[in-house]
Design brief:
By secondary structure, this protein is mainly α. The chain has a domain at 51-120. Helix content is 70%, strand content 8%. It has helices at residues 2-9, 13-29, 54-63, 68-75, 79-120, and strands at 33-37, 43-47. Strands 1-2 form a two-stranded antiparallel ribbon. β1 and β2 (43-47) form a beta hairpin. It is flat, with a radius of gyration of 17 Å.
Length: 122
């Protein structure tokens, strides 16, 4: 099963094992966090069962001056889920910040691509 999945992902068996182990250990410490592949194909921490990345929750908290209840309401999360995102951020802030920056850069490039394409079509 491991070899088949590694082939599907185009990864070596060892790279897949290392990723699964690292993600599994993080889930042990942060059970409300899961890892999803984002639009750019990068594995990114998210709230379990939701398509909401940890960096999105943290950005919203920053925008709303740390108002946990408001962020929970805006994202249709529980306050416990928002606090789980904060706990994960406390442990892996550099990674979460890099995820946010990578996502903003991807969005910027896609916007530029669409704008350029729009100028080429009548």
């Amino acid at each position: 099963m491991l070899d088949r999945r590694a082939d599907e992902l185009g990864q070596s068996r060892n790279a897949l094992v290392e990723r699964l182990l690292a993600e599994g250990l993080r889930r042990e410490e942060h059970p409300m966090v899961w890892f999803r592949s984002n639009a750019a194909g990068v594995r990114t921490a998210a709230i379990v069962g939701r398509r909401i990345y940890i960096w999105q929750v943290i950005d919203a908290l920053r925008t709303m001056d740390g108002a946990v209840a408001e962020v929970a309401d805006d994202f249709s999360l529980t306050e416990l889920q928002v606090r789980a995102a904060v706990d994960y951020y406390a442990a892996f802030s550099d990674e979460v910040d890099a995820d946010a920056e990578r996502s903003r850069e991807f969005t910027r490039r896609e916007r530029e691509r669409r704008e350029k394409a729009a100028t080429l079509t009548p």
